[in-house]
Amino acid sequence: MIAEPDPASLFIVLRLYNTLSRRIEPFVPREAGRVGMYTCGPTVYRDVHLGNLRSYLLADWLRRALVAEGCAVTHVKNITDVGHMRQELLDRGEDKIVAAALAAGQTPQQIAARYTELFLRDETRLNILRANVFPRATEHVPDMVRLTERLLLRGNAYEVDGTVYFSVASFPAYGRLSGNVQGTLREGVRAELDPHKRAPADFALWKRAEPGRALSWPSPWGAGFPGWHIECSAMSTRYLGEHIDLHTGGVDNIFPHHEDEIAQSEAAFGSPFVRHWVHGAHLLADGVKMAKSSGNVTTLDDLLTLGYDPMAFRYLCLLTRYRARMNFTLGALRQAAEALDHLRQRIRCYAQLGGAGGDDIEPWRALFRQRLADDLDLPGALAVMQRALASGLAARNKIAFALECDAIFGLQLTEVAREHEALTAAERHAVTEHVALRSRRRFKGADAMRRLERVVVEDHPSGLVLARTERRLTGRTRRTVMSARAVPHARSHELSWSILVVSRDHAEDLERAVRSVLRVMPQFAEVVVLDNGSADDAAERLAHLVKRERRVRAVFADRALGEGAAREALRLNARGVNQLHLDPSVELSDDLFALLEPVLAEDGTGLAGPWGLVSDDLRSFTEATDREVDAVQGYCLAARSDTLARLGGFDPRYRFYRNLDLALSFAAREAGLRNISVGSGLVRRHAHRAWEALPDVERERRSRKNFDRFLKRFGDRRDLLVASV
User: Fold this and answer.
1) Which residues pair with 246 in a beta bridge?
2) Which DSSP string do the residues of 508-522 spell out, in sequence order?
3) Rg of the chain over all Cα atoms, to the nearest angstrom
4) Whose CA is closest to 663, among 681, 677, 645, 647?
5) Whether 571 and 651 share a structural domain
6) What does the alpha-carbon distance between residue 157 and residue 147 come to, in Å, rounded to a whole number?
7) Considering the entire predicted model, what is its pTM?
8) What does the alpha-carbon distance between residue 716 and residue 557 come to, in Å, rounded to a whole number?
9) pLDDT tens-place string over residues 402-441
């Protein structure tokens, strides 16, 4: 039998970075051996994504380390089922729980209950220890009302027409956590101006409910609902008291949420609120923070659909220090999954082959403790465990040490070590038969017994190693790329043209566009398609297209890259002197290349294409064709490869396709180059699937986000307009 590890054998004295003091310092709870810990939990109006889960993994690892330090931890993680995500939404009276309920035809309570259940399921999938208390905001509104009343009585709040605000001026220490002190509050954090506030920095503790609002509660100031910040202050102090040892969250919570928590709580109780603040850095995707608003989220369900064990994500997060930003790609996840699979196999091998004990593992324990104590250096601690497993320690000691380490890591290695103990009689008989057949050199029959329904039998020089089938990683089916940088870069431009297409699903559109290109493209040219995370059927149709057409190549992204990142990947991979970036919605009706090539060969040409845009003010643009233009539309955009390199290529921050072309076109204008519209009669535009699939409000939001980014760089450069020359 494999013994349960004793976490106390890894006694640690943690030194953690404290956001409040801005230094690494010993973590010392108020009461020796007892820790009160609070984690900002989810707002339950949608699935949590991997960025959220990385923050909860940090809290889990901290808790496990504190238990190993010998502490009794009371962990509180709130559930926000009143959906205020940001102060500006609260100022507008918006509630994401209500919005999600209306969209789904359900009550807010039904939406919140459903996504709470899914959140807890995802935590279980990642082996995150259950918090001791999951307080729900809607069940603690009376606590929030009482705390608001207390702040009013102490002169730190004021009421205007049913809404109660916290007066930031009444709390001189405001800004200690974030450095965002009074008088220098970050511009744009609270963009909505509220005429009832005494000062723009003040924030709502209680908001008056508008008539007919779905979620509202009675209060001394009339029907209303709580502010996001007051929720956490009320619930944390309800279960942990006025003084909390450890408060965790993501760096985006530092301001305004945690800063406001400190102000409310310390103003209300007149004493320090939290001793130690620990914040985890962002999870990035395509170099941008993973967020619903960025359109780059990945969930655990997505990983399961792709065939990944959620524990591979836990392992992946172990490889990066918690205060360092981490860029998520499926390629990196695949590598983590392979490393976890290899680790599990080592654990199975040592557990099943056994052997006598040997060297003392205390030196390895000391190294492990040293790494954990250094601001929770999990990558370093994992490396210590891996070195121990590769050392000359006896197998029994390797297992003992690995399972002790896993009390912190939470990779469920104890279950892996015990897999062979759960064999049924039939499975044991099959294993025995496998051995007998191999001994008689009947290898075909032995191989037939190798993979049973639940067990994989693998031969090892020292004996057999058995593995649970669902815990073995399947082989790679197709090589994929994870970012523009991961795409092989062209070493030379030996072709005249590269026609570059970003495609996702809708294989019929891609095939129509490619057929039209193949009919007219020059002899020394290529078509390169980047499949941007299509469903399997579309990806397979592309694979068949590549087999049929020798001049077509395909690059498969491991997940949906943003439009800018996808086009940049193709730009770098192109082997043509000239590049034509073509949307799958476009069909060529004649030889467009014969018109484009001489235009691009002229000195001073930047971009060219059939559809152009012109403007008088950089705020509104109209379509123009067959003339010099301010911008070439990205549906069909051509340029020389060296010109695109000179301009810096496509900006990966533009995840949506709209207005990416403006940014590139004005970069060309800024470089003193002309943009030319030519060949509008030789192309045809069909329905744009990505545009049609989006509701109007989402089209506007994504387009506006990109346009604002464009204006930030070029908004005051009217001198670049053709009309200004």
Assistant:
1) 37, 276
2) HHHHHHHHHHHHH--
3) 30
4) 647
5) yes
6) 11
7) 0.79
8) 37
9) 999 999 999 999 999 998 787 777 777 777 776 777 667 7
